Fold:
Amino acid sequence: IPALNSWLQRLNRERLASDSSVCPPTDTMVRPVQVVKDANGLRFSLDGGRGSLQGDRPLTVKKIFQGWAATEPRGPKDLLQPGDEVLQIGERSLQGLMRLEAWQLIRALPMGPVQLLVRKKGKL
Structure:
């Protein structure tokens, strides 16, 4: 856990350094979430991204589809919710990607467990 916390802190520092206009709210939390990719993908949709209809925005979870599975014993609502920002899928950062690029990245993933890094809003 200490190594994970150190990695998350470094990621936050790097992200803030790369975009000086980003000032994260104090009520957000970055955390890893492990999900399972099956024949239907990761079973959630994304909103936002570079060039979205609302302008350049972070990629966020738009909707969680029925059958969504996480590899942790808690329910999906505890792990991932609409509005959560998806920062990373596997080792790939989603910062600056268009929604289509993120979707193509998800399609190319092998079946099985997938590690996400998400910025949660509010208290867990």
Summary: The two ends are 17 Å apart (CA to CA). The CA atoms of residues 49 and 99 lie 5 Å apart. The domain at 27-121 is CATH 2.30.42.10 (Pdz3 Domain). The longest strand covers residues 28-37.
